[in-house]
Specification:
Helix content: 10-25%
Distance between the termini: 21 Å
Strand order of the largest sheet: 1-2-6-5-4-3
Radius of gyration: 15 Å
Largest sheet: 6 strands, antiparallel
Oligomer: single chain
Order of helices and strands: HHEEEEEE
Structural class: alpha+beta
CATH architecture of one domain: Sandwich
Strand content: over 45%
Number of helices: 2
């Protein structure tokens, strides 16, 4: 039987685990306006030099800017570089 989000959140609180680990959430790190690091992704759904869409549990992270490029792509994390002008979270349900 799958464990509910509520139970996972409670476990994270009780055992002091990071919520992103227990609840299968993504983590986004922004470095100035030049780099975005997305952990725990599900893949890339759009890639151009002005926009990158990255699928995450429950939605997408949309990065917009100029001269965007994928610096590295691993099974769990992605580095996007360029001049970042906008980051949006689409379809996420307030996890």
């Amino acid at each position: 039987m799958p464990v509910s989000k509520k139970v996972k959140k409670k476990m994270a609180d009780v055992f002091e685990f990071p919520p992103d680990v227990v609840m299968d959430l993504h983590r986004i790190t922004v470095i100035g306006n030049i780099q975005v690091y997305v952990e725990n992704h599900r893949g890339i759904t759009l890639y151009t030099d002005t926009a990158v869409k990255i699928s995450v549990n429950g939605g997408e992270v949309v990065i917009k800017g100029n001269g965007l490029r994928l610096r590295t792509v691993y099974s769990d994390d992605i580095y996007v570089e360029g001049t970042i002008t906008e980051i949006n979270l689409e379809g996420l349900d307030g996890q």
